[in-house]
Amino acid sequence: MTPVSTTMSTSAEMISARLERLPMSRWHIKARVIVGAVTFFDGFDQLMIAYSLPVLIPKWNLTPAGVAWVIAIGGIGMLVGALGGGWLADRMGRLNVIIVSLALYAVMSLGMAFTDSLMLFLAFRFIQGIGLGAEVPVAATYIGEITKAHKRGRFVLLYEVIFPVGLVMSAIVSAWVVPRFGYEILFALGAIPIVLLPALFKLPESPRWLASRGKYDEADAAMRRIETEITERSGKTLPEPEPLATAVVDTSRGRFREAFQGIYLRRTLMLAAIWGCAYFVNYGIASWLPTLYRSVFEVSVDTALHYSIFTTVAGLIGCLVVAFLIDNLGRRICITASMVLCSTLLFLLAATGTGSAMAVLAWSAGAALFVFAVNMALYVYTAELYPTRMRAIGCAIGGASGRLGIIVGPLVVGGILGAGGTLALVFGMFGVVALIGAVVVGFFAIETREKTLEEISQ
């Protein structure tokens, strides 16, 4: 017996209805774990450069400007990857882009491990960034599309938490590996995710995406795979899907310019601003902290890396907290309040906390708790604001804006320090940027909790 009759599966609206009536199941958890493992290694690979810098600086005699560019070159690659990955994901499929992205960033990490040339290292880092930048927003799109409206924020964010877990593990592994075995072994470990490729090939493509492209037979086949696995494991019969009254799915091809037209213009500009502000603050601080501990406060490489662990753990806690609050308080309140609190702590750090490494550690960890929460919330929120045919494009624009923040944040820090600026000026600047992000979301964001993806896109 098939889970749903053939006549009921021939429209994009019915595919959405079939997804919405699915109970949360082991299949959803399996998909979240497999794609989450890819995202874990994305997080692991992304910050390895920050934890290697205390060793790379003397190796290549890097100036503050040189350090900033070593950090920023990866961000430039991520910017290209976010834009290109989103465009490809709306044309080639979500899983195809995730698979290619994983292979790209894993192989390039291996290349970084085996070169002594600064120029080759930078080239590999740029190409690795393309894979890193494409994977996370497309993976978030895929997870969002297989999830129903009820408690979608919690489900997606509990998946996204794997990214900061990757950041934490990167800090812990780096603190142990780099002082003992060198940065080369650390980058070699970045090739491990290659082993995830077979599991990714076994997942079905997003039925919502397939239906949005008019591939109804393939969408139906993907849905039947999911429905069959759920019913066989639970032993229960699924209820008949009921068409969603407000769900009229446009199956035309999405284009970048549409994100800047009609109701999507305000959403896109708001998202671009908050993505840029949040990642400017997050990556600007996280990428420079190990170097600041080492160069300003003259602690050992081992100590600098151990201090960085506390910041990423605080960020992980923030991600867990927002995952359990976002469906109750809503996206707008969670993001705005987190940015206000992050800004407040950064201003306090600039005013009173730059005199010692421990003070910087305490205040920056508090700020990280809130800005990491915002970064995670943005993945679920961005995927909700666009229809399926252009969802990956919307996520790509948000991700690209974040990657622009990743590029500019470290460069601004390098410029301030290179010109003789103080840590108080650096952290005060971060506080201003965080406050701008809070104001933009507070005034221009719309609420999306407990609404289907099709309702929000109307």
Automatic annotation (TrEMBL):
It is found in: Cell membrane. InterPro entries: MFS_dom, MFS_sugar_transport-like, MFS_trans_sf, Sugar_transporter_CS. Keywords: Membrane, Transmembrane, Transmembrane helix, Transport. SUPFAM superfamilies: MFS general substrate transporter. Pfam families: Sugar_tr. It comes from the Bacteria. Residues 31-449 form the Major facilitator superfamily (MFS) profile domain. The chain crosses the membrane at residues 33-54, 66-88, 95-114, 120-143, 155-179, 185-203, 264-285, 305-326, 333-351, 357-381, 393-417, 423-446. This is MFS transporter. It comes from Rhodococcus artemisiae. The lineage of its organism: Bacteria, Bacillati, Actinomycetota, Actinomycetes, Mycobacteriales.
